[in-house]
Design brief:
Elements: E1 3-9, E2 17-21, E3 31-36, E4 45-56, E5 61-67
Parallel strand pairs: 1-5
Antiparallel strand pairs: 1-2, 3-4, 4-5
Length: 98
């Protein structure tokens, strides 16, 4: 597997550069989650970093990760343009005239 040294900005990882595995498209993942164990034995805290562009390199796009203190905002559901909306409009489903 191929990896790329990717810088991190903000949060506890600020200024660090880690090798991040690249996907099939040659891009790192859109989000990078780092579980941090709780020193008192509780559930781990998860640091969330979002991928952002840091400019174009010689031949490829370059990336960096920026700390997202809000964590998961998307709710884990992919937003696909061909998906039906959750709420259906009023009217009968078989009514062609509206």
């Amino acid at each position: 597997m191929k990896s790329e040294d990717t810088p991190f900005e903000g949060g506890p990882m600020d200024g660090r550069v880690l090798p991040v595995l690249l996907g099939l498209t040659g891009h790192p993942p859109k989000t990078y989650r780092i579980p941090v164990p709780d020193p008192h034995g509780g559930p781990p805290t998860v640091l969330v970093y979002r991928r952002e562009s840091r400019g174009k390199g010689r031949l490829t796009q370059r990336w960096k990760y920026v700390h997202d203190p809000a964590g998961d905002r998307g709710g884990g559901r992919l937003g696909r343009p061909w998906r039906k909306p959750d709420a259906t409009p009023g009217g009968k489903p078989d009514d062609a005239d509206g």
